[in-house]
Amino acid sequence: MKTKILALGFIAILSIASCSKDDKQTSSAFSTEEAKVNSKIDLANDDVADIVEGQFNDTQNSAAGRYSEAPATSSLPACATVVRNPAFGTPLTPGTAVTKTITFGDETTGCTLANGNVLKGTIIVTFTYQPEATTHNINYQFVNFYHNQIKLNGNKNFTRTMSEATQQSPSHPIVVMNMQMTAEFPDGRIFTRIGTRTREIIAGYDTPNILLDNVYQVTGNWTTTFPNTTIQTSTITTPLLVKISCREVNKPLLVQGIITFQRNGNTATLDYGTGECDNLAIYTINGNSYNIVIGN
């Protein structure tokens, strides 16, 4: 969702930018095609991160007695299959190495997620089952894996830590997502993405059976190296806020926060607002601000 919004924001602004000399110079640093590339890589990262964290959470929630872990989960479409080692139904003991192999459809048609993105190939998730631990490391790798015809290579890992409970906040997970990967596009171009994103649930964790009250805070930064070796840096300079409840009014989930982009000496920002469930954001570059519509 976040990356989809980013792409639409860039495209809308770059269409406006063609109207003046100064903005034409800006577009040379943030071109429409480059914005599309960034959005596609970001979208792939978000989808994969959600899938991997979901598989880990299924095992953890099963251990906590919230529900029974099974090959079919509500977080994945029916066309995806999950094989666990040890097999589903086998009791896990602390210290057991767990491998979950997720396959998305067949080699021809793949598997379509609820958001319309098509995945092909396999993701292998590995972690050690330690139900009482406060910190977990989750690794995953791609095997001939494609996201909307973009082939992803490389390794990624999560560090998931349970925070200490305070009078203001119960213990809850904080997930740091580390990535070092390449994205190979159908035309042969290869882009390298390195960085981190930290996601913390700040509301709704104490109601595990209710998704709509979940609120997340996201921070982080990453770089993208283009085939011509140009590097673009993206930094979340004001924490992003994600409200799942915005689904109820068919609005984007990202409702607050600022991302700053830097490339070739140019800086741009995208401000998502003050927390309301709407589809508006403000894009600013070279001192000029534009109101844009995000999402559908």
Annotate the secondary structure layout.
Layout: H1 2-17, H2 21-29, H3 32-63, E1 80-85, E2 96-104, E3 111-112, E4 118-129, E5 135-147, E6 150-162, E7 173-184, E8 190-203, E9 215-225, E10 231-243, E11 254-263, E12 266-274, E13 280-285, E14 288-293
What does this structure look like?
It is a single chain. The chain has 296 residues and is α+β, with helices and mostly antiparallel strands. The chain is 19% helix and 46% strand. The chain has helices at residues 2-17, 21-29, 32-63, and strands at residues 80-85, 96-104, 111-112, 118-129, 135-147, 150-162, 173-184, 190-203, 215-225, 231-243, 254-263, 266-274, 280-285, 288-293. Strands 1, 2, 3, 4, 5, 6, 7, 8, 9, 10, 11, 12, 13 and 14 form a 14-stranded antiparallel β-sheet that branches. A hairpin with a 5-residue loop joins strand 12 (266-274) and strand 13 (280-285). Helix 1 runs antiparallel to helix 3. The longest helix has 32 residues, at 32-63. The radius of gyration is 20 Å and the shape is globular. The termini are close together.
Structural class call reads: alpha+beta
Question: What is the approximate shape?
Answer: globular
Quote the average pLDDT: 80
- Runs in which pLDDT lies below 50 for 5 or more consecutive residues are 1-28
| Main sheet overview | 14 strands, antiparallel
In helices, the fraction of residues equals 10-25%
Distance between the termini: 11 Å
Radius of gyration: 20 Å
Number of H/I helices: 3
Proportion of residues in β-strands: over 45%
